[in-house]
Amino acid sequence: MNIASTSSVQSATSAAQAKNADAVNILVLKKALDMQAVSAVAMLQALPQPALASQGSVGTRVNTFA
Q1: The three-state (H, E, C) secondary structure of the chain, written as one string
Q2: pLDDT 10s digits, 26-38
Q3: What is the pTM of this model?
């Protein structure tokens, strides 16, 4: 008797393969998000800091740059 041709074995096999494929897809997504976060941090750090106001009424009392 060949049990590989039964529908329950085929269903179990395809379910296991789907779980593996989902796990791989999630890992790829996590790596892509990590790479995007690293590049976003690098771009933000590359921005120049604005000069603080030294005279006038706007920006001399509170530093609102965040």
Answers
A1: CCHHHCHHHHHHHHHHHHHHHHHHHHHHHHHHHHHHHHHHHHHHHHCCCCCCCCCCCCCCCCCCCC
A2: 999 999 999 999 9
A3: 0.53
